Amino acid sequence: MGHLHRREFLGLAAAGAGVLALNARGAAPVASSTSAARKTKRVVLVAFAGGVRTRDTFGTPENVPNLKKLADEGVLYTRARTANLGHFGAALSIFTGIAEQRGIRENARGPYPTLFEYARKDLGLAANDVWITTSGGAQQVNYAYGLHAEYGAEYGANTLDGEGIFNKEFKRVLDALGRPRELPKDEEAVLKKLRASLAQGGAAGLNSAESAAQVERYILQELTRGTADLTGANAGDAKALRLARNLVSLFKPKLTAVVLQDADTAHGSYNGYAEVIRRNDAALGELVQAVRADPELANSTALIVVPEFGRDRDLNSRRGLDHGDGSEDLSNVACLCWGPDFKRGEVVKDEVQVVDVTPTVCELLGARAKLAKGKRLPGLFG
Ligand SMILES: [Zn+2]
User: Fold this and answer.
1) Which tens digit of pLDDT belongs to each residue from 277-305?
2) Cα-to-centroid distance, 86 and ligand 1 (Å)
3) Strands 332-338 and 130-134
4) Could you tell me the pTM of the whole model?
């Protein structure tokens, strides 16, 4: 985007983010006395999903030098009990704080609110403050919000996957902008609506339709920057992590979640799985580097990394690893918490639960996970 310089764009980004805030709500923030005193203003939550054993991460530190460094600077829970419901249900439980999701089906939204909905409703956050990037697949859009009557779509997270696909409405516009062709009537209407929304956001200097379109195009380019080049065993995961890195740098959202999945290649190959872990560790390292390099983010951002479950203790006949033997390797994972308010270099060996993550994140941000069954992680704060 040669017409708009980066610095100009960054100045516009906050206002331009109005593009993404079509359903911003005006709910009154719930100020919690504890959260007010804390430094944490933003949380990045990475579901290191696909089934990842602690034995292959913190048990083999050479696989995860970046995670190891974060653990040395943060709190590592070595026995986080998982909700073993299959990949989808178990990963969803990270975001709802509920292990037993009645009526949960694969590829459907869950019945309970997600932490995105708690945060947006309680804190009155706009859509551009809460994001989820996924490794891809239609199923993964279901993490953005649930079907609970008091919450739901209007409080959901913006979704973005490795191909740069946003919420459907936004995607159509961005697709159209990227192609040199006439806009069909309905897309024209959506684009008008977005521009109107942008104008209402009071974006100084954005008074022509052309410059609004420029900002929209630039936002997509910036968010997906570098994702096209990512290939290899963890390509989907690497894209999700790169999108998160770009998001965190550009929009500085209050809550950014990432769902990974490529480690599940383990069913067919242990070596392929170990490679995914190493590559994802490197991509996580880049994300954290972006946080450390930004003075505003460095002292205000917490990172939590947790798998949805582990894997079997023993290799299968293909020299791979399934998940179903009920072993400790499967039912306990490591949960890493790193941030300005957390203890440093602490290892907690007491049993906690993966579903404790949602109440912990909500409390950090000053929201309340009303329906979650988990509890705040113990021994986290310094
Ligand atoms: Zn699997």
Assistant:
1) 999 999 999 999 999 999 999 999 999 99
2) 7
3) unpaired
4) 0.82
Q: pLDDT tens for residues 304-337?
A: 999 999 999 999 999 999 999 999 999 999 999 9
- The domains located in the chain, with CATH, are 1-30+168-223 (no CATH), 41-164+230-365 (3.40.720.10)
| Helix segments in the chain, DSSP class H | 6-16, 33-37, 65-72, 86-96, 115-123, 168-178, 185-200, 209-223, 235-251, 270-293, 295-298, 328-331, 357-365
Give residue 126's region: left, alpha or beta (phi > 0; psi -120 to 50): beta
What is the sign, positive or negative, of the torsion defined by CA atoms of 34, 24, 196, 161?
Answer: positive
Please tell me the distance between residue 329's alpha carbon and the centre of ligand 1 in angstroms: 14
In the chain, which residues have pLDDT < 50? 1-33, 179-183, 198-207
- What is the whole-number distance in angstroms between the Cα of residue 265 and the centre of ligand 1? 8
The predicted pLDDT at position 84 comes to 73
| Chain position carrying tokens 């024209």 | 188
Taking the centre of ligand 1 as the mean of its atom positions, its distance from the CA of residue 264, in whole angstroms, is 5
